[in-house]
Amino acid sequence: MSDLTVDVAVVGAGPAGLAAAVAAAEAGAVVAVVDAGTQTGGQFWRHRPETGDADPDGHGHHDWNTFLDLRRRFRAGIAAGRVHHLPGLQVWMASKNDVDGFTLRTTRTVVGGEGVTPTVHAARLVLCPGGYDRQLPVPGWDLPGVMAAGGIQAFIKANGALPGKRFVVAGTGPFLLPVAANIAEAGGEVLAVLESSSLSKWFPHWKAAASVPGKALEGAEYAGIFARHRIPYKTRSIVTAVSGTDRVQTVSWAKADADGRAIPGTGGRYEDVDVIGFGWGFTPQMELPLSFGVQTRLDADGSLVAVVDERQESSVPGLFLAGEVTGVGGAVLAVLEGKAAGTAAADASAVVLPADVLPAKEAARRDRHRRFAQAMHQAHPVPHAWQEWLTPETLVCRCEEVPVSEVTQARSTLGAEDSRSLKSFTRVGMGWCQGRVCGFAGSCLGAGPGEPAAAASLASAAKRPLAVPVPISELASLND
Amino acid sequence: MADLLPEHPDFLWRNPDPKPSYDAIIVGGGGHGLATAYYLAKHHGMTNIAILERGWLAGGNMARNTTIIRSNYLWDESAAIYEHSLRLWEALPDELEYDFLFSQRGVMNLAHTLQDVRESVRRVGANKLNGVDAEWLDADQVKELCPIINTSEDIRYPVLGATYQPRAGIAKHDHVAWAFARKADELGVDIIQNCEVTGFLKDGNRVVGVQTNRGTIHAGKVALCAAGHSSVLAKMAGFDLPIQSHPLQALVSELHEIVHPTVVMSNHVHVYVSQAHKGELVMGAGIDSYNGYGQRGGFHVIEEQMAAAVELFPVFSRAHLLRTWGGIVDVTLDASPIVGKSPVENLYVNCGWGTGGFKGTPGAGWTMAHTIATDEPHALNAPFALERFETGALIDEHGAAAVAH
């Protein structure tokens, strides 16, 4: 396979992408779905390999029936010839021109396959690339055994195994709960969940929270799991250092003030820790949307996200976006956005009305989830004073081993206040991750203590000709 | 691997405000401007001088090249100035007291066609007569020296041999800039960043200073070391420079074990590949044909180049490219630089180095310093005068410039 021409291309097969693909196909469009995963579900519904009869039962998952329903309809679309599923592929470059519409160039997620990877041409494009686990540097975070909270969860969901025995989960936000629950249910010991925020930060947002009762039910479910496994849940608590000789052994923690500053004389240490998982919310994967120059905004969680209309269309005609890239808000919201985006993208006339893409009831539900997401971001912010945790030696960029001292010096003496300049001076974000892990922290450090990362700085960390690393041979084959 | 690299500098130079006047002003704080200032202060006792940089130090092509250093150019004039430059390079780590990882790992220029072979053998002969270490390698010798090259006969551009310069190599570009900056600063040179020249003060046909976004600065002499932007500056000063600026792209992979022992360039297919000290593959492409100052280029150029790279180095086919960038090459119509006086008195020009700028850094600085201090070009840069485009005494280095421009 080399070239595929369809009505609608969808990037990503997580909650948003699956919903978009199903909606577009059911509206009559021929759809191609490019997904990094080898099977549908994305990060949220990542599961054991679908082999033979051993289909996963959805244990440890939420809205599993939604997934099963979407997957059934997705497979029906494949059977009807309207859906082309292209798994194990990532888009390394997306472009648009007036004659051919959108073009997606793909590369394999796993090195080793042979032959040419497909190029997808589509009249309209729906991008649902999801996000990365947001990470903040902390002394010792470069030791083996430090993982992203989502990384631990993906490990469990995909392999049914644990990356260690004794865990600490730290950061902020409701996502820490399912991660800890997954660990405990898989047989791991969770020494503590350290939440930097105070639950009282939810009080101003009780209306938004109450409007999405499902979330409260999830919370109650986690409370049950935490009680059953005796998992301590400590609010206003942060990790101050991770230490060990060759890998993680000790996690030091402290109580934090309202700005997230460690309070001296508080806290303690967890010893013999195998894995510490950090999660500070999510950073939307903006490489592809930015490559089209979409209009963006800063969301309440400090992330750069794309602006879309009610039909999920971006400022670029024919380019629809759903899920994290329009604002992090969870899987239910992503499914609703995906459905709207897919339905709108299926319509070649481009005059489809908002009311036609999502029934009023679901549109209202989407709004409620968006309000809930805003409340969640405000209740679980990246701590204002997080930069005070760092020592001069703490690495900001683990790939290029750039310490905080170099970054702060470049800012204060060389005037490097954005990620692009910092990169030139210090090589922060220049390694294997290309800023996907350290870009947010680097942008914050460039802005200065207590300052939010500037939109332009976040954008320049994610704007690149190569959206993902691409093997030289695949570039070479384009020339044939 | 980080311990291989020198310490990141803390405060290598002051950050002074511009003084009202200087004996000489150098416009452009890239490698050439820094080297010019250093040699002016070191060899000619001119220390009341300033470098004006509109952005930040070494943020232009100095940060955007593939760091190859060699001197095997064809013509006597080019061989002389580049070989002088290479000799300066060899002494610089000690002289500047800074280990900028100058690695003389050799550079190969591959020959793929009969014309390539003839041209290369001729160039090796010319190089030897000019005292440049040059060798002609046949395909087997190429394979022996760089086992990862595909020397089979049935590829689109078979390797028929290569010129080889053992003393050539690579250096860590930003460290080179810091090394020059620190020494220049120690000698009293003011390095002034965020200072853009917006006009020239003239008394008749003599330059007497510059206007900048930080005020007027008087100067006895002014030197332009602004690469492609020199033509913009020259226009302000009242004359034209026959240079064009093209984007030239480069690419970097993730880290790999060190498997590439040398630097390989292929003029014919426009690809050059080396492996940096930490293990990244560093690759350069051919220029984009249009003119522009945008530090980016067309993707088709990269695609063509990668096809050539994979054929020559099958071992790299699964290496991932992480990032690409573009620099600007400022080229003249004979692919040789302009280093010397200008039509305006006391105004000196250094530009048009094309792809030779990084390797020419010390040579350009050394000869420019002589020219500025004595108001006469040195024998090494006299042939590179601007007037050659009127007299016709061109130095056609298109063949040896490695990337056609």
UniProtKB/TrEMBL annotation, chain A:
SUPFAM superfamilies reported for this sequence: FAD/NAD(P)-binding domain
Keywords recorded for this protein, A-Z: Oxidoreductase
Plastid listed as a keyword: no
Domain (FAD/NAD(P)-binding) ranges: 7-331
Keyword ATP-binding: no
Tree of life domain: Bacteria
PANTHER family: ANAEROBIC GLYCEROL-3-PHOSPHATE DEHYDROGENASE SUBUNIT B (PTHR42949)
Protein's name according to its UniProt entry: (2Fe-2S)-binding protein
Native source species: Arthrobacter horti
Lineage: Bacteria, Bacillati, Actinomycetota, Actinomycetes, Micrococcales
TrEMBL record, chain B:
Catalytic activities: sarcosine + (6S)-5,6,7,8-tetrahydrofolate + O2 = (6R)-5,10-methylene-5,6,7,8-tetrahydrofolate + glycine + H2O2; sarcosine + O2 + H2O = formaldehyde + glycine + H2O2
Keyword Oxidoreductase in record: yes
Cofactors (names): FAD; FMN
Predominant location: cytoplasm
Protein name per the record: Sarcosine oxidase subunit beta
Domain of life: Bacteria
Class of this enzyme: oxidoreductase
Rhodanese domain: residues covered: 25-68
Matches recorded under SUPFAM superfamilies: FAD-linked reductases, C-terminal domain, FAD/NAD(P)-binding domain
InterPro entries for the chain: FAD-dep_OxRdtase (IPR006076), FAD/NAD-bd_sf (IPR036188), Rhodanese-like_dom (IPR001763), SoxB (IPR006278)
Family of the protein in this entry: Belongs to the SoxB family.
Keyword presence, Lyase: no
EC nos: 1.5.3.24
Cellular compartments annotated: Cytoplasm
Keywords annotated in UniProt: Cytoplasm, FAD, Flavoprotein, FMN, Nucleotide-binding, Oxidoreductase
Any Pfam family matching the protein: DAO
